[in-house]
Amino acid sequence: MELIQTEELLIRRMKETDYERLTQWLNNKDVLEFWDTHHPPNIQRVKEKYGPRVKDLEEVKPCIVEVQGRPVGYIQYYRIHSEEIIQLGYAENESVFGMDQLIGISSQLGKGIGTKMVKALIEYIAREQKGTVIVMDPSIRNERAIRCYEKCGFIKKKIINEKYWLMERRM
Fold first, then answer.
1. Burial group, residue 78, by CB count within 10 angstroms (0-12, 13-18, 19+)
2. Rg, Å, the chain Cα set
3. Any stretches that span the bilayer, and where are they (predicted)?
């Protein structure tokens, strides 16, 4: 199912046929450096973690990003619920979403794809999901991602567990 189609890219819901591709991406050294995995995932772990999401059994909505018909990245979004909203310091009545993403093909880094996919999903969350705040938690060492998110209107709020920035984007 297509969520977003722009001139530059397509964001579609992830399918079971994407497990192997995502496994390869999660084992890419450029992704492993910053994606929060305790060990390189194999296809079985990917199916266990992402299968319920693909089948819509969890809040997390997994998506694949395509450029000119070629899958190049992964992006996911999810509504954050009351208890966690309050823990993060937001009002309970705010519509807060979380977002995570990666570009799985090293040769596609530095081409503006990250900025385009993040901006496209921001617009979708605001318009279709009625989100008022989006938060992300990139590694404090992931300067490339942080620059991308700042270009998309995210601001650094605070450091979490000495490892991650809590970044927010208000609509």
1. middle
2. 15
3. none
